[in-house]
């Protein structure tokens, strides 16, 4: 009977677990290697798990917090609680946890036994695979040049946990070695330089994160091939969380561990895309001890100011779509007309099956739909999160009442930063009081006064987090599918009589939250002194969320902060395939390796006496645009003229169109960093000829009702800027 139960449990485990692993936070990675270093765990000079504890106290850590090491070939976490107080740890059979059995303990710290594996790069499949012997892989292993010698491309990977998160350190290891201690490791192929690999995504915390052993992440191909060591952590992936103070703390601890084991690197270069780029900009600004240079890819300046425009997206899309529903000949039925207000690109040919039920003109879409739809519920709404979180937390035996009380927003995830009460949702920084949507389009004669007035009367705002609910379908999968709500309008401030004297209320952001965003270092203000090559693939035609404007937002902030942007280089690359219907894309050429070579040369020049950073730049550190095949289209200091100045467009600016944003189309500048605008009266704005058009008395009355507090004066500093930071602005 007992044998039958074991067989049953095993059958359920092997059938159900891989299915859950696709959509949830558990499962097993396909790469594994049996070399465990359990006997060496007591060597504090090497595997210093106990000594590397978090800077924060255990009492300050998040609970509930899911350990995910099982999925990523690191085994179950080490038990540190006998009673519920973390992720459940289960009995094992042949190394696999039996999830249907009673837990044998719990883990709050998510610590694991440190492990070392060896991988080789396959020249035939262009991937890393577990390495066993040269004889076994002799027909597949790639050989590379290293310090004038041809060596097999073999990499040692140390993995474990630091600050609750999974980390790895990868380094070329083509020669025989033992693992008795760091002193016996053969690190002669290392170039004595460190690459810290940051990673992106959007996460709201509460779990240990994911771990990616591929040639773009923990085993970054271009860096390892050049001899760099690679440091990497699930705590510096923004798909795990967007707490940039926690990311900074984790990166610093991983680097300290690297130094203790392998030695002080000559310098450390950051690399990473999207949220990985955000971390480089923000951490590079806030802490000079982590990276000495940055290669942000597909960048944004930071996350928190990115939400300013993202919060506008669905408000505007809902309004445009509802106008189209009422009148198929509406001005907003043409997707290209929406650009005049949203600023971001749109397409009349795109087909997005996922949103085919939404009442919008078809075919067609915008960056707001393709790139940002779903972001507001995921970031703003304390009562919405992916169903996988609840399933996995139940699986790992977290009490239901604890899970139900979690507030699922970016701001609540940073409760220690924003000093909120655990029992109440934290207010957020999003504000649209006084925003005149489509102002630039009105000034340019692209929309009429009536369109402008109707738009601003009906656009509305977002409810306070404490008033939000789970939403309708598809945000709540249990809701009636007939109540399909693509825009999450259930959580908007709207008015049925918005065109008839009852404008929809706008949203007032919390100024104290804005202040803390600045003070905690979550806003990139441009005060950064390291060499930066901002690398980007041009994806505007396929409405990708990684819009090119972001590179120039960062440049504008750097220039405003420092008076110049000499340390900031921008490289754009064409993509080889862009499908304007399916919005699929492929970018074959990756300039990151070349950028790394230029950064390497730039940093080698840093010790030259009596020379400023701009004077130390190597020849390759110059603004550039690149063709899909890797050939240079143009390179020069005038490449991007006309974007942040009044000069005629430079050769790259001419080739790659930079789009705007909803706030720029409302009169804000390129920096994109105004949480809350200062207000001026409509009379003052009219006297300054702000509208370029005369409003009659009835139209003036509508303006007064739409903007009872006044309209934005973007010539003034951000109202959300702390007073001490306003000095000199």
Largest sheet: 12 strands, mixed
> Could you list the spans in which at least 5 consecutive residues all have pLDDT below 50?
1-59
Q: Tally the beta strands.
A: 26
Judging from the principal axes of the Cα atoms, what is the shape?
globular
Structural class: alpha/beta
* Strand order within the widest beta sheet: 6-5-9-10-12-11-13-14-19-20-23-24
How far apart, in Å, are the first and last alpha carbons? Answer: 77 Å
- Percent of residues in beta strands? 5-15%
| Helix segment tally | 22
Rg (C-alpha, Å): 27 Å
**Helical percent range?**
25-40%
Report the average pLDDT across residues.
Answer: 89
Which helices and strands, and how do they pair?
Layout: H1 2-23, E1 87-89, E2 92-93, E3 96-97, E4 105-107, E5 115-121, E6 128-130, H2 134-137, E7 143-146, E8 149-152, E9 154-162, E10 165-172, E11 194-199, H3 221-225, E12 229-237, H4 244-262, E13 268-273, H5 275-286, E14 293-297, H6 306-326, H7 335-342, E15 346-347, E16 365-366, H8 367-372, H9 375-380, H10 387-395, H11 400-404, H12 410-413, H13 415-418, H14 439-443, H15 449-458, E17 461-462, E18 492-493, H16 511-519, E19 532-537, H17 549-562, E20 568-573, E21 577-578, E22 585-586, H18 592-604, E23 624-626, E24 632-635, H19 651-655, E25 678-680, H20 682-687, H21 697-706, E26 711-713, H22 723-726
Parallel strand pairs: 11-12, 11-13, 13-14, 14-19, 19-20, 20-23
Antiparallel strand pairs: 1-4, 2-3, 5-6, 5-9, 7-8, 9-10, 10-12, 15-16, 17-18, 21-22, 23-24, 25-26
Helix pairs in contact: 15-21
